[in-house]
Amino acid sequence: MGACGNKKNDPSVTTPNLGVQQSDTLAFRNTSLSLDERVQDLLSRLTLEEKIGQMMNGTPEIKRLDIPAYDYWNEALHGVGRSTAATVFPQAIGLGATFDADLAYRVSSAISDEARAIYNATNEKGYNIQYNGLTFWTPNINIFRDPRWGRGQETYGEDPYLTAILGQAFVKGLQGDNPDYLKTAACAKHFAVHSGPEKMRHQFNAEVGPKDLWETYLPAFKALVDVDVEAVMCAYNSTNGEPCCSNNYLITDVLRNEWNFKGHVLTDCGALVDLYKQPNEGGHGRVKTPAEAAALAIKSGISLNCGSTYSSLGDAVKEGLITEADIDAQLAIVLKTRFKLGLFDPKGSNPYDNIPFDVVNSEAHRALSKEVAQKSMVLLKNNGVLPLRNDLSKYFVTGPNAASVEILLGNYYGVNPNMVTILEGISAAIRPTSQLQYRLGAMLNKPSINPINYATGHAGNSDVTIVVLGVSSQIEGEEGDSLDSNTAGDRLDYDLPENQIAYLRELRERADKNPEDKKPIVTVITSGSPINLQEVEALSDAVLFAWYPGEEGGTAVADILFGKISPSGRLPITFPKSLDQIPAFDDYSMKGRTYKYMDEDPMYPFGFGLSYTTFNYDGIKASSPSIAKTENLTVEVKVTNSGNVASDEVVQVYVSDMEATVAVPNFQLVRTKRITLAPGIATNLTFELTPEDFKIVHNDGSRSIESGEFNIYIGGSSPMKRSSELGAPTMDKTTITIN
User: The pTM is what?
Assistant: First the structure.
């Protein structure tokens, strides 16, 4: 397999010197040379076998060149994952619920600080193992188009614009702003058109028309390429008949040629096996052998294989399927990433080498994790019971997730020595003289409830019952990780587990036993995806949706319940009333999906969330009632905190084309801004809209602005009529004409 054997009779080729070489004198170590010169020098010194070893995620040590082992597979979805103890931030969908790109940047900057510090310390000890590296396979910018998808929790929600601005901020924070070095390397995944069903992901073909492809599934990827994301991961599934990891249209035509992406493309883990596994074996059956799969991937522009299929590249060369030059071209691309990270430079060459270990799991990062959790939680109902006093006589905390650490984590998580459960957060928030009773009360997912349950009696004699229900990564998540799921981590049943609802019914019955002294029930829901909460809402005096809130999740829940802060999270995904309101799970058409194309009234609309105060929107004014297609438009609005509690408000701007010649979204989010207002205070906000914000996507995937009327809405939720019915501020609207 070695290069010498293949080229020993070719006088034009210099055989690599396989002896131990003084590495600090080699050209690839010379920081004064260009990146391309250094990469080519290193390539020239490698045998074919060594090159192949450097193209799979776990790369072996090359002793003679003093190159240590390195593993490209590292995780940082919401904190450095699967490595040393580090800060655990709320799950990505919770960050999506903040609608706050600045906050996303602060989070990812903290994560990359910790990642560098961990790498510096572990590398010093020679711990060059998986999950200790600097190439992070995050963020997941797939569109959460269907609530059944178990991995939707890893995304920022259903909206391409929101996903794009949060994803861009996250990439910038991960990669840093040094002109010469990457702080860490980010990766946009899974390219493209990937969102379940999880059980079929290795052989599923997502069929999508040009309009939906370019309107919904590709914009966030384009946005991340625009901010120089270092890597893109191709998905397991096929898109329009071609596996994503050999999809010439997606990788070559779109990613490389149209978007001019310069980074490396890598496979999802084991995805190349799917190329030669036949359909009856659960694969795509695109080719017949591992060598053919490896060759096809190289020809398709895949530089890095997560898995071992590239170990057959030597056979592919022998069989004449590809040449060593083909391998060199792809290896050069992925090696550039390691050079940009400074991994071949003397220690101290880049400023990130000096990040100290004490930033890991620091108090400042813990405070940031709590801030994200506070801003992510969505108040769905409040009949006036919240905020609670913290000096009541007796509190009853119950439910399967009240004392659970699992629900703080979500998936792709790190670990931390101080995970604050919801029970612990509430316990710390109340006065020492108040009594707190805790009972589990119900299992997470059991077919029936215990016929003898001593817990429910507390609902009748406590000043308030706080019941923590929902799901966890035991039920939803990735194929193979969700241990209590028989649907590979997807949630094909949209309801809460029946035993939980039955338990809540019993609590309500006990709480209402004395008609003259009914006791309130506050329900906290943990989940990474929408759930049918119609009966929960009917049985509860207040409902707080907490997502998977990270290491300070319990503190953040308590801060909201007891009024230390006002809730300000907004739903980044629509909650349908039932699955009957949306198309089949495997239907990738956007018709009838998300707030953009759903015509029925949902249970909770996109962008919705209640507060402890009230906000008024008035005085919306456009800079002109009529503009040309090439002009920008300025829109102003006055926002007033008309209540008596200081609070954040998430201001949302939507555009609707009223005279389009093709099917267009009912309205679409084009700007958002999080503001903080004290009671009685008003502020005037200005938003600049560009021609891009008024473009529609035609059936062939092209974009243009059509003349006609456009509505512009500004408010604290999406313009779906359910928003105002549920208590969101009434949106202000203006109409303009584009000539």
Answer: 0.96
